[in-house]
């Protein structure tokens, strides 16, 4: 009998990418349904009775944790998450697997190998694992790990580690890596709340810079600081309000 999978992911691009990658790595797998939010996922679990559930841990309507409670003991679960701290406890427990966003073929292949082994056993009771996930998630703040950015006519997934800086650009925000520039619709003020403040410093009301991309700072003839980047030729202006960040440099 064929193995049937339900994919619950609220971002259409990532949902379609996961379907495509599953098709490459496990051609026999039948994707019986796709859900765009938690409420739809619960309904489709009841309607389709999948063998496997690829479940985004953060979705509108109902969270992935709530959907997993509904699926507990009914199907095997693999969390799809951009925040690895949510998944570590469950992964160590061994009752579920996880795939870290952005999804890569090697990571997915590892998860699928474990899932194939589990298909020989009944789906696990996830109540203990979900308690760990809730407890672990309450201990640590989760931060943005990637962005979906427009590059010409295509949408590209860019991990935050690749990004040198963000800069407000009219209605959009410019995302600059060492080799590319692209646009996202998320404003700087939202990024400030979603990015790890230890990794990204606000140096101007319109600019967030990756601290790992900073080569140093210089002072111009007017006494204003400029951030020099390791892999970009331009320099970034530092507002007086943020000069204190560089006092020890």
Defining traits:
249 residues; alpha/beta; Rossmann fold; OB fold (Dihydrolipoamide Acetyltransferase, E2P); 2 domains; 5-stranded parallel sheet; 5-stranded antiparallel sheet; 31% helix; elongated
Q: What letter string, H or E per element, gives the SSE order?
A: EHEHEHEHEHHEEEEEHEEEEE
| Oligomeric state as shown | single chain
Q: Specify the CATH homologous superfamily of the largest domain.
A: Response regulator
Main beta sheet strand tally, sense and closure = 5 strands, parallel
Structural classification: alpha/beta
CATH topology of the largest domain: Rossmann fold
Folded structure, characterized:
- The protein is α/β, with parallel strands linked by helices and 249 residues long.
- It folds into 2 domains: 4-139, Rossmann fold; 146-246, OB fold (Dihydrolipoamide Acetyltransferase, E2P) (Beta Barrel), CATH 2.40.50.
- Helices cover 31% and strands 31% of the residues.
- The chain has helices at 12-25, 38-48, 64-71, 84-93, 105-118, 127-139, 188-194, and strands at 4-8, 30-35, 52-56, 76-81, 97-100, 146-151, 154-159, 163-169, 172-177, 181-184, 200-204, 207-210, 214-219, 225-229, 235-237.
- The strands form 4 sheets. A 5-stranded parallel sheet has the order 2-1-3-4-5, sandwiched between helices. Strands 10-9-8-12-11 form a 5-stranded antiparallel sheet, with no helix packed on it. Strands 13-14-15 form a 3-stranded antiparallel sheet, with no helix packed on it.
- The protein is elongated and about 75 Å long.
- The termini are far apart.
């Amino acid at each position: 009998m064929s193995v049937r999978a339900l994919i619950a992911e609220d971002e259409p691009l990532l949902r379609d990418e996961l379907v495509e990658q599953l098709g490459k790595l496990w051609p026999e797998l039948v994707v019986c349904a796709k859900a765009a939010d938690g409420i739809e996922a619960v309904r489709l679990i009841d309607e389709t009775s999948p063998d496997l559930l690829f479940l985004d841990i953060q979705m509108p309507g109902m969270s992935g944790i709530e959907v997993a409670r509904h699926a507990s003991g009914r199907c095997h679960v693999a969390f799809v998450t951009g925040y690895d701290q949510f998944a570590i406890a469950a992964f160590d427990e061994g009752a579920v697997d996880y795939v870290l966003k952005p999804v890569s073929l090697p990571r997915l292949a590892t998860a699928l190998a474990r899932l194939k082994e589990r298909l020989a056993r009944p789906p696990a009771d996830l109540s203990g694992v979900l308690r760990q996930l809730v407890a672990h998630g309450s201990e640590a703040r989760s931060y943005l790990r990637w962005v979906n950015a427009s590059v010409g006519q295509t949408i590209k997934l860019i991990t935050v580690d690749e990004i040198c800086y963000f800069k407000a650009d009219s209605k959009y925000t410019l995302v600059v890596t060492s080799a590319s520039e692209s646009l996202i619709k998320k404003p700087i003020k939202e990024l400030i709340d979603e990015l790890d403040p230890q990794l990204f410093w606000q140096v101007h009301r319109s600019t967030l810079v990756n601290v790992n991309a900073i080569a140093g700072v210089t002072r111009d003839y007017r006494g204003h600081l400029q951030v020099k980047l390791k892999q970009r030729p331009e320099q970034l202006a530092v507002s007086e309000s943020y000069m204190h960040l560089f006092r020890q440099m």
